[in-house]
C-alpha cells in the first residue's frame, strides 16, 4: 500500500470514528474527553533556525491513552535558504505514569523552499513525510520534551536535525 493511500485510510478511519462518536447518545461524554491545544517547536543549528506551531485536538480514551489530529505550520531558514511548510498530522499519546508522556506522530507536509545560489534562487515544492517518536515530562496540561524524526532526510527536511524539542499544551 502506498504512503498516500495509508494516510487517506487513517484519516478516513479517524473521521468515521469521530462522526459515529458525535451521533451516539453519549455525545456529551465524547466532548468531555476532547482536548484542544497543540504544540510549539524550535530548532537551532550553527547556521539556521526552525520554528513550528501545531494546533490539534485529541480524544482521551482514558488517563493513559489519547489520539487525535493536528495541523502544522513550519518556517525554517538556513543560511540564505528558506523553507515554508504546512500540512497535517495524526498523533497518539501514552502516559504510563502521569509525569511521563510517550508520543508517536505521523506528519505530512507540503514544502515550499527557496535555495539561494550565487546566480539565481531555485524554488522547489514537494511533499515530505515525518514520523516522530518522543518523550516528555508532563505537568497538568503541559508537556515538554524531545522528539525524533525516524524518516529524517538531510537533503529534504526543513528540520535542522532529526532531534527537536517540543512543548504541548491541551485544555
Describe the structure.
By secondary structure, this protein is an alpha+beta fold. The chain has two domains: 1-32; 35-170, Porin (Beta Barrel). The protein is 16% helix and 63% strand. It contains two helices and eight strands, in the order H-H-E-E-E-E-E-E-E-E. Strands 1-2-3-4-5-6-7-8 form an eight-stranded antiparallel β-barrel. A hairpin with a 4-residue loop joins strand 2 (48-60) and strand 3. The chain starts with a helix and ends with a strand.
Report a brief summary of the structure.
By secondary structure, the chain is α+β, with helices and mostly antiparallel strands. It contains two helices and eight strands, in the order H-H-E-E-E-E-E-E-E-E.
Helical content (DSSP H or I, runs of 4+) = 10-25%
What is the CATH fold-level name of the largest domain?
Porin
Q: Give the radius of gyration.
A: 17 Å
- Helix/strand order, N-terminal first: HHEEEEEEEE
- Would you tell me the structural class of the helices and strands? alpha+beta
The total number of structural domains is 2
CATH class of the largest domain: Mainly Beta
The main pleated sheet reads as: 8 strands, antiparallel, barrel
Amino acid at each position: 500500500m502506498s504512503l498516500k493511500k495509508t494516510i487517506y485510510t487513517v484519516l478516513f478511519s479517524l473521521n468515521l470514528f469521530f462522526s459515529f462518536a458525535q451521533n451516539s447518545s453519549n455525545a456529551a461524554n465524547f466532548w468531555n474527553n476532547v482536548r484542544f491545544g497543540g504544540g510549539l517547536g524550535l530548532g537551532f543549528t550553527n547556521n539556521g533556525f526552525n520554528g513550528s506551531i501545531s494546533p490539534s485536538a485529541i480524544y482521551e480514551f482514558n488517563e493513559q491513552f489519547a489520539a487525535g489530529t493536528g495541523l502544522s505550520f513550519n518556517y525554517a531558514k538556513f543560511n540564505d535558504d528558506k523553507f515554508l511548510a504546512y500540512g497535517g498530522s495524526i498523533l497518539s499519546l501514552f502516559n504510563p505514569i502521569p509525569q511521563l508522556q510517550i508520543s508517536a506522530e505521523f506528519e505530512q507536509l507540503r514544502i515550499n523552499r527557496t535555495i539561494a545560489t550565487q546566480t539565481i534562487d531555485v524554488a522547489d515544492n514537494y511533499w515530505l513525510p515525518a514520523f516522530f517518536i518522543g518523550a516528555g515530562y508532563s505537568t497538568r496540561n503541559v508537556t515538554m520534551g524531545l522528539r525524533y524524526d525516524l524518516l529524517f532526510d538531510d537533503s529534504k527536511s526543513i528540520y535542522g536535525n532529526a532531534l527537536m524539542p517540543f512543548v504541548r499544551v491541551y485544555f
